[in-house]
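Might I ask for a little of your time on a matter of protein folding? Here, with my thanks, is the record as I have it:
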Amino acid sequence: MTKKKFEFNEDNLAQAKKLLQKYPRGREKSALLPMLDMAQRQNGGYVSKEALEYVANFLDIPFIRAYEVASFYSMINLDPVGKYHVQICGTIPCWLKGSELLKKVCAKHMKVKCGETSKDKKFTLSEVECLGACRNAPVAQINDNYFEDIDEGKMLQILEMLENQR
């Protein structure tokens, strides 16, 4: 079995080099998180082992250090996700305002359990810790978009709209 190779495409390579210039000399390793995000976006929504190795080598840091950071942040996906990654906040403010019900609505509509991807690879459902909008709970994040003060009806409307997009 051939190992899939990963490297930044031309645009991301230029962006990565430009990003490194923003950090003080000797502190370039601090660019790890934004570079993991670039790799994830280029790689279809997740950071593969090959992408993680590439970024670690690019920044001259040990693979395990890059893995520790990548596995800590819920915004970095180490496994493939669907076209729409639906993340429901599960912290107390959102839970008190109905996030558990939102999760159930999503799971039923997508025909998945939390942590799974639909058979058509369109949706992945995840519970995450604090999306930082407690005042407007419950909150969901779908890819880069936040949805606040949502109820079951609004959630279903959003899912149906996404389902009908190409």
Summary: The mean pLDDT is 94. The first helix runs from residue 10 to 20. The chain is about 45% helix and 10% strand. The first strand starts at residue 84 and ends at 89.
